[in-house]
Amino acid sequence: MRSNLKIEGKALDGIDAKLVTLLNDNARMSIAELGRAVNMSAPSVNERLKRLEEAGVISGYTVTLDPEQIGYTLQAIVRMRQLPGKLKELEELIQSIPQFIECDRVTGEDCFYARLCLTDIHQLDEILNRVCEIAETNTSIVKSTPVKRRQVPLLLGGS
Q1: Which of 45, 51, 113, 143 has a CA between 20 and 30 Å from the CA of residue 97?
Q2: Name one GO biological process term (predicted).
């Protein structure tokens, strides 16, 4: 790896930040479109994107689905505390159930906070029945999401 591909301190310059923001808004933008947006040539933009990927700043390009549009009418947040000796088993169970779309291992009384996308309340019951064999749960139904998952604020370096 070439040394000029390193991003010092993981902070981005203004052009890198603009490129990341544009791609976050529309990951399908072409290199040419990105170049026009930041007043740079396509090869220069391509080199910057390669540098950002190699540094691990950009780890992928994705599609965002609207769960409701594909039949998931209910979301729930589940806090879980494993029964003694069941931590690994609980983690594996969560990973095996595709309706768990996010899960964080946390400190405090609970060990996992997870988000589920569900077709209906009966599906929630089926999943919780499996989880309750190895963990205590506390479930909340999501009424709305004022802040959808978003990218972390960009740290700008230098100027």
Answers
A1: 143
A2: regulation of DNA-templated transcription
